[in-house]
């Protein structure tokens, strides 16, 4: 999609440049016609006039003619002058329409790019716009696509005062993909461990704890987005600082580095046991 849009923008840009050059030519011709008309009116007779219009043929006056013919020639120049002015106005209007169309397309592409990032996470080319870290290395950019993280949903578990939210985390590494389910406290524990192990992680914002109103739907949705952005940023940094993961980008390697991503359902093979194990430490 980006390549197609870039090609379209390049083609439109070439058209704009061609029209701009044609516009400049028309301006020069317009000045010549104005000068010719003024000269004919001032002298009241014809004189040798250089070739000024070469679209439909050459207009050349080689010798002096009677005053009536001079007026007719001046009238012809005036008509052509009007035609050039109309063409110039149409060109300006077309340029304005083209500019508005390009601006609308750029806005649409930007919106679609952001929606795509929200759906599948950043890949090479997106990092400069999505990551909070402005000092991303070439290594990080070239390897970011090895892992993608989403938090597609969040749901409420428990009853009444003991109710809590659980976030679905979907991870994909090449052909490996799996889901885990974690509470906010587990994300917070992961953040503290990563800070201690990788001081660079402290540069990333982690959504703060909230005691009142933490079950409000709008707040939960905002926290879901914040946790998703946090995990994606942390994955960028982990890839940069852990060469063994880049050498072997797979599920087992990630779990060894960060047990947070253990898939308890696959580990125990039973949804009920996995759920109990999953939340036992929360």
UniProtKB/TrEMBL annotation:
Signal peptide: none annotated. Residues 145-282 form the PX domain. CDD domains: PX_RUN (cd07277). One of its GO terms (molecular function) is phosphatidylinositol binding. Transmembrane segments: none annotated. SUPFAM superfamilies: PX domain. InterPro entries: PX_dom, PX_dom_sf, SNX29_PX. This is Sorting nexin 29. It comes from Homo sapiens (Human).
